[in-house]
Design brief:
Elements: E1 3-8, H1 14-25, E2 28-30, H2 32-43, H3 47-55, H4 62-65, H5 67-82, E3 88-91, E4 105-111, H6 114-125, H7 129-151, E5 164-167, H8 173-184, H9 193-214, E6 220-224, E7 227-232, H10 239-250, E8 258-263, E9 284-287, H11 291-303, E10 308-311, H12 314-324, E11 328-331, H13 340-350, E12 355-360, H14 365-373, E13 378-381, H15 386-404
Length: 405
Amino acid sequence: MSILTFFSGSYCGKSSIISDVIDQSGFKLLSDNDLVASASRLSGMPEKKIARSFLEKTSVFNKFTHEKERAIAYLRLAMAELMSEDKCMIEGFTSLLIPASISHVLRICLIADKTFRIEQAMKAHNLSEKDAVSLISKNDELYSAWSNTLYKIIDPWDASLYDMILPTDKMTKDEAVAMILENLKNEVIQPTKTSRKAVDDFVLAARVEVALSKEGHTISVSARDGLVTLTINTNVLLLGRLEEELKNIVKQVEGVSSVETRIGKGFYQADIYRRFDFQVPSKVLLVDDEREFVQTLSERLQMRDMGSAIAYDGESALNLVEADEPDVMILDLKMPGIDGIEVLKKVKASRPEIEVIILTGHGSEADREICMKLGAFAYLQKPVDIEELSLNLKAANEKIRQKQK
């Protein structure tokens, strides 16, 4: 049986159209929440982190953690495993995960002129025109970021992504529903031997992508008849060694008959390929108003494969904690505005799971006692030996990992 997908702009009348299609077709609806829950069960990652891959901007730590890519890998696997379900309708961000090679999918896009959408948002939430414009623009930014992440297509309504684009402001609900149901009968989107084989290839590629992500690798994967192709899109210092490691991982996946590697378009850009190392923290927030010191410290940590972001004051640090949830914080005490002790109090009150290492050049024994009572992981004095700091960071990371088991 064919599969039906819906991707829609906000305030385009999606809910009533989908409801009528379900009533008249008997298709089972699967939402983003359903796919996120399935991906969470497969991965062990919290649902919140899975959903963050498409509902929020990319974290400043992601180039070190590859958390977004791991989440997408498990979303693909969750999607691949349900492709055999009968009379299935998939709605939302996750609907774009299905590859174009699977032809028995009718891909629907619902969109309307912005003026229409603004009016609908104003009515739905009693908003001013300015607030409605802001809300819709924010949503559209998320849609654009998602289509760009998956296909390098900035326009989420690009015709190449869909079989049908329905302008819901220019047709009635009944007209839209009738058109969808009529196209569901089209012989072109009925399952064939070739399209079912494409599903098998999708499943294998998803399993390989997950196997690689478990070992800290983020690589583009495609599969056909057991042949897996890995595309390396980021510059690599030791390409041959990486290719050998990737092939050894992929060959262990059931269904893989052979593996080949290719160089992608992004290989010759400035970025360097980073494998995620689970043994060291990759979400370290450095908080210090001494700019030269903290920038040098960040570089030295990155040389040790520890990902870091920088905040130069307490208020910025608290904003980053809220937005990007670091694992470990290295915190100075004496800063303008909110001082380090106050930051420590607020972090431990709102995010007690974050381990905080105090690193200060102006602290006292009384400060040390206060910080440790507030829950600091360690209290270190400047200047600090980088190896001593690294050992404390690894110990903090191990404490976090033990709590997560």
